[in-house]
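[Discussion] Sanity-checking designs against the backbone

I'm trying to build intuition for which residues belong where. Below is a structure token string of 164 positions. I'd appreciate it if someone posts a full sequence so I can compare it with mine line by line.
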């Protein structure tokens, strides 16, 4: 599933919360804390799909400039975020978390804005969920998805500027 960067739907309650300044956003400020929060088992689950070896691999990808995080802060505390991998104009979201209502959805909104600002072409959210469908996520036929990935990875854009 993907979120078309020009077709994001922001639910009105979430838009109000974001306009109200309840959340502050950063990129790549605390990748380590974000991936570890994503790796915590969800409610009613005893384990997670994110293993310690995966965490080490993504941390290495982050050091190399491929893996990135979006942090959502509230009064100085990390309350949500997500991480993923950028290749050219393609961003693959891997996982997200929230400790405050709407924080992970706010991270998605801020990420889409950021990807548009930077000239990205494709945002892969991995799998469709009701929350992401409400924000405009769509399933693509496999052939079209692969065609768009091949095109997006050749686009010369960066997730962050050298001065960020």
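Best answer:
Here's mine. Compare freely.
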């Amino acid at each position: 599933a993907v979120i078309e960067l020009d077709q994001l739907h922001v639910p009105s309650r979430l838009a109000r919360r974001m306009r109200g300044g309840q959340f502050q956003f950063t990129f790549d400020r605390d990748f380590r804390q974000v991936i570890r929060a994503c790796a915590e088992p969800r409610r009613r689950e005893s384990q997670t799909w994110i293993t310690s070896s995966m965490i080490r691999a993504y941390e290495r990808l982050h050091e190399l400039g491929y893996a990135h995080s979006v942090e959502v802060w509230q009064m100085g505390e990390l309350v949500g975020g997500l991480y993923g991998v950028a290749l050219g104009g393609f961003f693959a979201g891997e996982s997200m978390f929230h400790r405050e209502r709407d924080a992970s959805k706010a991270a998605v909104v801020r990420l889409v804005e950021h990807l548009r600002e930077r000239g990205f072409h494709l945002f892969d959210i991995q799998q469709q969920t009701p929350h992401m469908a409400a924000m405009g996520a769509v399933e693509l036929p496999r052939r079209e998805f692969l065609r768009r990935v091949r095109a997006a990875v050749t686009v010369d854009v960066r997730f962050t500027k050298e001065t960020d």
